């Protein structure tokens, strides 16, 4: 957007911060004791399987739902008390805004912008066209929304969030309904927002998506936050795996067991004719790699190859959520 860079917030401050935030529906806690911290300037992935409480959290942050416990602040101000001061600084895509089906995409944006008391009328036409272009809807802007696909409606929702520069963008599953091309475009859009200094808070149940675009992430499971931090921090908190390539698989297993590690299966390499690969999981506070090699050699194990694999973010998230992704609670 050409409307000038967003302020973005001072690095080191939090764009979103919650303490003990919770929401109950009857006896069910949709969100429970949430302590979330989204640093200013981050592209923050809010991950979790379906039903883990992401949308409920976002709704509370935006004043669309009332918390039943705890506190939340957005751009340094308490919510929902400071709603009127905060919302003009926040762009949001949550469950798609209500569009008029018999109006064109462009006319819908004009109406939504006109309904916003903070939007300058003089620049409306230009801002609407820029937002439509930015989400790749320029060519379809004259079509009625009732003829839009789900992906096109999603893009229109994004365009609505982009009508003015914002310090914080909150996007709930922004690639829902988009084809691979549309997904790539949204990723690029998020990167360009971040480049302009906007903090982006994006929920997703797609790990690969978060891994590609985010600097930080939090993981929800059944209403609870189970991890948050930079992607690197989340990765390194996971369990690493050691793999030993050796013709002395039995002896290698013995050494691993003596070191307190649990040896995994022995996999033949090269159809069983050559050495075998022996693996073991290294817990977070594990035996250092050099000590393992020393013990193997000391025991007379011939080592042809040795590697420590930190494990992917996916391994870590499956570890954390138990059920993996795309699973309803
Ligand atoms: N209005 C409501 N009334 C009762 N229960 C609700 C309501 N909204 C959400 N819930 C429940 O709260 C839990 C969390 O839902 P939420 O929509 O926040 O999850 P989510 O992580 O956003 O999932 P999804 O990715 O499927 O949108 C779910 O068990 C859901 O059924």
TrEMBL record:
Protein name: ATP-binding cassette domain-containing protein
UniProt keyword terms in alphabetical order: ATP-binding, Nucleotide-binding, Transport
Species annotation: Arthrobacter silviterrae
Protein family per UniProt: Belongs to the ABC transporter superfamily.
Pfam families recorded: ABC_tran
GO molecular function: ATP binding
Domain ABC transporter positions: 16-247
Matching InterPro entries: AAA+_ATPase, ABC_transporter-like_ATP-bd, ABC_transporter-like_CS, P-loop_NTPase
């Amino acid at each position: 957007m050409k409307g000038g860079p967003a302020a973005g917030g001072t690095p080191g401050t939090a764009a979103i911060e919650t303490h003990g935030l919770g929401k109950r529906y009857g006896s069910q806690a949709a969100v429970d004791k949430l302590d979330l911290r989204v640093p200013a300037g981050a592209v923050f992935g809010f991950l979790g399987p379906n039903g883990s409480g992401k949308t409920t959290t976002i709704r509370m942050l935006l004043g669309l739902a009332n918390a039943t416990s705890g506190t939340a602040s957005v751009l340094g101000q308490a919510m929902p008390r400071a709603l009127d001061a905060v919302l003009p600084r926040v762009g949001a895509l949550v469950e798609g805004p209500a569009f008029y089906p018999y109006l064109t995409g462009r006319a819908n944006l004009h109406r939504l912008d006109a309904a916003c008391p903070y939007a300058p009328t003089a620049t409306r036409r230009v801002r609407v066209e820029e937002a439509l272009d930015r989400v790749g809807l320029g060519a379809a802007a004259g079509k009625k929304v009732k003829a839009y696909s789900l992906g096109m409606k999603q893009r229109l929702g994004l365009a609505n969030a982009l009508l003015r520069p914002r310090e914080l963008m909150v996007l709930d599953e922004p690639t829902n309904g988009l084809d691979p091309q549309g997904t790539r475009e949204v990723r690029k859009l998020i990167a360009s927002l971040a480049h302009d200094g906007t903090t982006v808070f994006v929920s997703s149940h797609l790990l690969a998506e978060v891994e590609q675009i985010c600097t930080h992430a939090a993981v929800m499971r059944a209403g609870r936050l189970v991890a948050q931090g930079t992607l690197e921090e989340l990765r390194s908190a996971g369990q690493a795996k050691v793999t030993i390539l050796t013709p002395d698989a039995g002896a290698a297993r013995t050494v691993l067991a003596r070191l307190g590690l649990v040896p995994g299966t022995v996999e033949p390499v090269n159809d069983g004719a050559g050495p075998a690969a022996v693996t073991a999981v290294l817990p977070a506070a594990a035996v250092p790699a050099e000590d393992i090699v020393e013990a193997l050699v000391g025991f007379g194990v011939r080592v042809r190859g040795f590697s420590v694999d930190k494990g992917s973010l996916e391994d870590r998230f499956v570890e954390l959520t138990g059920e993996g992704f795309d699973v309803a609670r």
